[in-house]
Amino acid sequence: MPSAAMPSPPREAPPSSLVASFHPAVVIHHTELQAPPSPRTHRALRRLQSAHSLGAAARPINQPSLISQQRRDLHRNGSPTRDLGHGAASRSPQRGRANSDATPPLAHYMNLAAAAKRSSLKKPVFSHGHLSLQQIIRDGPNDGDFVGALESARWKVVDEGIKSAEDGMSPLRIYVWLVLLDAPIMSTDEYLSLIHRGASPAYSKIRNDTFRTLTTDPLFRRRVSEASLIRLLNAIAWKLQDAKEDQRQSRPSSRQSSHPRESLTGSVSGHSQAKSSAGPEPGTYVQGMNVLAAPFLYAARSEAEAFVAFYSLLTRECPAYIRGAMDGVHRGLALVDKVLAIVDPKLSMYLTAKGLSAEIYAFPSVLTLCACTPPLPEVLRLWDFLFAYGPHLNIVCIVAQLTIMRSQILQSPSPNKVLRSFPQLNADLVKSVTIGIIKKIPDDVYAEITMHAL
Q: Which of 29, 293, 444, 445 lies at 20 to 30 Å from 336 by C-alpha?
């Protein structure tokens, strides 16, 4: 693990070649909705050719995202591997190469980097390691090596970060997020069609949330209008509603029987079979999604880009956060308590003695992937890390923040006052502490973390 936080990357203006390299086949003519004050949003909506290559060509249609596939493969194998020795030699020749096979886990990367620093050796070598992150995203993989390009990109995101200005703005970030989230190509017209449907069933809930979104953050308020946030969330609500309708219509009707008892049992069994065949219940709009959507609108160069990235996160990486009674969030909160008890028993027992569980103080941090903790530029940098190695690691990031403020909590006779608002987010420090905590977590608990949001 690196002994110190990495320095902030220098500012760098977007090269003209980045715009010139856009593939004409994926250029989408942007229809102006209601642009936020920033001049950046007046640019036409474009998609990088390599984003299409990495996101679409690397996997068949309707397959789960790369991060999701890795989590599920680890869960299937029973124990996630976070050390050396899990690679090509352990793969079965009877099956295709899984993403979890191709991509060494995070702790493995960090161990390699720490060992290289201690021994003055070079950093780990990856197939696209000689290229900058911008080149990988702009030009795509060499010789069709999608997995190698993605592996190199993920490492560079953690090791070097995404170059951005002091306000967190970067011409590259949204495209890196789209690739890491494996977001599909979507036309602006599809987004506009959702907007033109008018108010969704969740519209009143949305209007009750949007005006309270990051009200103390001047950067967000200056760049993103409330109208833009309303449109995005309303479109998301329609999309989720459509998924519910599609599932309802796909359920086969149960066969009616003349015998009352037979009819009853047949109905129950038919409902159970229909439910299992249709898959998990789709999500719906929940309070807090406004804060979770905010960084996407801030980082994206159009509402349509923000929409497709946000929808991919909700439906592929953390669908249980917006499903039913938000079971995934509550599982995440229980895991915050469990991990804290493992890595810092004294702090855990102190909070328990004060009657403070994660359900009381960490609900917003779990639901919003720490987007509720300012400043926004640091949230963006933390999300770079989470999208590179899985949003499920947010659970460990929350524990990292608790250990960072450990002395303040232990010295306070009323720690609930301290925990009402976490200290200003420092993404590099949180990442460094998180990586250290990962090494202490037992395999079975780590497996729970990887799967809790699905």
A: 293
